Amino acid sequence: xxxxxxxxxxxxxxxxxxxxxxxxxxxxxxxxxxxxxxxxxxxxxxxxxxxxxxxxxxxxxxxxxxxxxxxxxxxxxxxxxxxxxxxxxxxxxxxxxxxxxxxxxxxxxxxxxxxxxxxxxxxxxxxxxxxxxxxxxxxxxxxxxxxxxxxxxxxxxxxxxxxxxxxxxxxxxxxxxxxxxxxxxxxxxxxxxxxxxxxxxxxxxxxxxxxxxxxxxxxxxxxxxxxxxxxxxxxxxxxxxxxxxxxxxxxxxxxxxxxxxxxxxxxxxxxxxxxxxxxxxxxxxxxxxxxxxxxxxxxxxxxxxxxxxxxxxxxxxxxxxxxxxxxxxxxxxxxxxxxxxxxxxxxxxxxxx
Amino acid sequence: xxxxxxxxxxxxxxxxxxxxxxxxxxxxxxxxxxxxxxxxxxxxxxxxxxxxxxxxxxxxxxxxxxxxxxxxxxxxxxxxxxxxxxxxxxxxxxxxxxxxxxxxxxxxxxxxxxxxxxxxxxxxxxxxxxxxxxxxxxxxxxxxxxxxxxxxxxxxxxxxxxxxxxxxxxxxxxxxxxxxxxxxxxxxxxxxxxxxxxxxxxxxxxxxxxxxxxxxxxxxxxxxxxxxxxxxxxxxxxxxxxxxxxxxxxxxxxxxxxxxxxxxxxxxxxxxxxxxxxxxxxxxxxxxxxxxxxxxxxxxxxxxxxxxxxxxxxxxxxxxxxxxxxxxxxxxxxxxxxxxxxxxxxxxxxxxx
DNA sequence: CCGGTTCATGTAACCGGTAACATACGACGC
DNA sequence: GCGTCGTATGTTACCGGTTACATGAACCGG
Lengths: 353, 353
Prior knowledge:
elongated; DNA-binding; homodimer; DNA-binding (chains A, B); 6-stranded mixed sheet; 6-stranded parallel sheet; alpha/beta
């Protein structure tokens, strides 16, 4: 009654100041606050820590939210809290990729923990990975998931410097940037070689994608097959990543032209193996009697080929789940497990070998 | 000389106030400004509109950036400018998906225009699409790309309300939320039916994924094959999306058990068609003589199957490119083209029919 | 009935930038 | 010599939230 009425009559008056600036036009916390008759802090609390506000206020805020269709601006929230709830995963490519399981698991697991996953396609081109990184770091994600270890020194440097938790996946290295969930591609190649030897294979060939990890498998395969000394007589066909079915067919065709006596093919990707199988069938080369075929990835079609495809299986889902857990644990300062996990791989023996 | 020296001696003193707040610890614009000896606005200008600052200042700023390894905080920038340079694409799934081309094209095209693409996996589950939307809108993206039209009314409502430019893709509807780049799935089904009829097919079967768009193709196929009246005698096998090769094999196996006399299979996805082809080969059913097979998608393996697969091709790259262009035009207030584009599809005739 | 808690809410500052407007200064034309 | 304009930089407010701390009322035991 006694207060000067002016302030009471013009309570909120958003653009009273002389500076005109486009506000986004959306409903904001302040709008809600005005509507409910409290300050924005109270509204913020009602939304984030409802146990701190009275039941009455809470209900009125919730009603206002429904009425206005308010969606909180996570951008502003992130800036203020310096917590972005955003995780970025960089993958080389989506096409027919073994990473799909991992990405799926990441999405699910992170969503459950209240984080959103942003996927960046880096391509198999290493220079692009570098360029992307600035844009990624600039978004101040709470964590970064890398598929494969990054090899550019400047990129590793930058990642270390920015202090964002990083998980490298699908590979192993002695000096990870931060955390790591992977397995040894060398071991995969070696295991494939050893296995084929136990099957009596004498003259294998290799069909491999061109990316770095596939090359590592190939190299180890060659070395293991020759008991340490690399065997230059083993024919190798390299195809551009990402590989496709036709590549596999053409590879076998080419191999048979030049090395008609091969008795096995180690394929660096299941899709290549499928191509090889189809070409073999087409030419009436019986698998596994005349030609043993082994793939890598255990993609969802591997068990349904003719004959069912033996392959080196990597548990992509587990990699994703683990990476997510480790990342979230770290972000939320929980004592995590080992920062380096080797998930290994397994040889799935089906009938193609 | 005459001014009180206190202010001169304690110029920047970041945490002079009694309020202690964790600042992110990273290098900020203010840090740079202090280093160079100008205000942060000048530094901001040096970085964003270099033509507005003197050469001398520009050089000193650049030197400081190099020295400190400064990365601008895009979060803060977005908030201030209400321009996020972020585009979100919602796709049902990555696995073996026809959308891959589109996503690739989007990434490339948008990157060129200075935007980053965030991919959200919605799953084929419609309810999840809804839930994701809040998180997406909350990030205040500059634009949203949807694969397939969204059908939940509340979701459409929300998208319209938030004022963010939206492109729906891979489908057609009379009332798009905003913009649209797609084609008619009904027409695809109809075209497949008409085509098979010209090939003398009398007793076709359908193998189709369970998602809405595949169902639309199937329905139109059935209707077209019966000249308007739906034919209930055409056997239909529905498999869960995303479909895989084994689904195709099992489907044909099941079909032959119950309808041994079918003379064609219309597959709602190329991978299903591949399964059908493999099962046919396995059973010595010659394609196309005894059984004609047609797929959908023209995935990269379609031309390399035995026999090469006839399929309904959709130019996913074009969809992506167009969507990106339309979005950017809209965002940057350039007069764009038509807001609704039908990119059509084409029938790729290979030897499986 | 008083000091100490607890609960609900408020105030001011701050996150790291950008927008809008203001100003200092030199060049230029007449 | 003076008004005008352009250039380089500064000042202030603001984007939409969150954090740290303060305050006021209700409650509570002694």
